[in-house]
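lol ok so funny story. i was supposed to be doing the assay writeup but got distracted and ended up predicting the structure for this chain instead. priorities right. anyway since i did it might as well share w the group, maybe its usefull for someone
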Amino acid sequence: MRARRAAVRSASALIATLALTAGLAGPAVAAREAEAPPVATATDPVTHEENDRVPEGSAWTQHYFPSSDRSGTQLHADVLLPEGLSRKEKVPVILSVGPYFAHSGQTGPEGWAHTGPSARFNDFIEGTDLFDEGYAFVMVDLRGFGGSTGCLDWGGPGEQADVRAAIDWAAKQPWSTGAVGMYGKSYDAVTGLIGNNLDQRALKAVVAQEPLWDMYQYIYSNGVPRPNVTGTAGAYNSIATIPPMADDDPRYRANARYEQDHPECLTENSAGYRISDQRDGHWTSRDLARMAKGSDTPLFVTQGFIENNTKPEEMQEYLDNHEGPERGWLGQWDHVRGGDRTPDGRLAMGREGWYQETLSFYDQYLKGIRPDVRYPAYAVEDSTGAWRAQRTWPVTERSVTLPLGGGSYVDDGGVTARAALTASGGPAPRPPAPPAGRWDMENAPATEYVAPRGLAEESAKRQRDGEVGSSFFVWSKPLEKPARVTGTPQVSLTAKGEGNVMLKLYDVAPDGTAVMFDEQVSLLDSDRLTVDLKATDWTLAAGHVLAVEIGSIQTGSWRDTPSGETVEVRGARIRLALDDPADDVATPGDRSPFLDTYLRQYTVELPAGPGTFTVVPGGRL
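and the output, tada:
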């Protein structure tokens, strides 16, 4: 805490005490105190002492400017400048662009008594002492949200035009040095990736926590709809229609009600989510990973490998296509920020220093200040909870393509497997309830529907007995020494039959317990199929076995339609990027708390079957 800020807080407390004492003087004074705090305009800044929703040490103004696509869309910005900044002084700008900056609340009304700038990133502002460090913070509402007009366009060309306009506008203001950095988590991390892809000279650095790397993957998995296929559209339609505050300025109030006069905006937004073909122009224009090719903005990302919301799908493609400096925190957590803590006070990512490191990153690229601390390019937590430093991600010491052979399964959504479990004397598992699926990128279930107890073990037993069930397994031989599966595993196969396929990877211990650590699904829309699983960083211990399950979609969160057909699989192969844990260079960090939650949810009984392939052919990485 800076001394000046502490002094401001002390002064505020003194003023509050004097005001309370003065209130005893009579009703006229009390009436004046009950008046709403002032609302900022472009030329009349408001400080924390005047409006308690303004962060301490800053002065709030509001501005409107056009998007860059000549659509007539007007964008709204809340600007927070260091309090007391003179007209001749200039500061670099940290910019966040997204749907969550409405004055009433991020995803719905939050019960504020009066208007003011969003508190969404007050943790970042306070954690970095941003204004004392000489930065401006700018929050821009995407089209259709908050005080901006226009039809919402989830990650599409319209929003890309908004990001371009916001960067240009922030760079050209009289108080700006022209150097812009972007900051965000989830949706406003997506806009940071969009900013990188736009290749604007003014954008000097991007910090993106838990983004989507390709918008399609949030709604469909290779043609199979996710439960939020319609619900996410509804969630953002709802956010777009959050009512303004009663004391918002007239222009803001009018813009916030844009959808009332343009109901087609909500209809068009919903329609886009119903396009299931990944090759359709609607989705190719939102394929951020592909569009990152040749980009070079310095990029600082975080990604939880086991998170259930914005999953690490096409992350490696994005990073491979990005050619600029990179920094990353990657590990075993859920949808959290770098500085978040659990209710018992532990850091959600397990690593100290988020705010110091992000500030150093911005200082380096927006101010040209050489870092005092030599941070690793990537700090990575693997499945053991251990942290290591490395120059890039993934580090691949050996890439292998391993034969899985073939087998058959019934695409029945797990009916056969559940019936077999019941017939074996186990408790009758309930079929998964249809998930509600109404969530935005900031809010999603922490875990998905997991396998009923005993399901995997019984399915493997029936396979050994020669029966065709809802899936089949292929096991490796036990590993002779530890090996890490990193990067993006890929499975290719030839399938005869129509329907769906689910692919799962298990880490099987000698005692027969197994952890499902990666999965993906796809429609069987061609005879030959290649499927990228989620990016991962999972260490297989010596003596452990890698199991691959191929079959119908039985768990997880998808709205699949089982075909009922028997699917014959031939020539299956898995491609893995392998890393040797013995070469790890340790870096500070604790085990992220969510890892244990994940292990409890996804550990099953699955004794290893006969090994048919070797994870590390020849035994050397």
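Confidence is low (pLDDT under 50) at residues 1-33. The two ends are 48 Å apart (CA to CA).
back to the writeup now i swear
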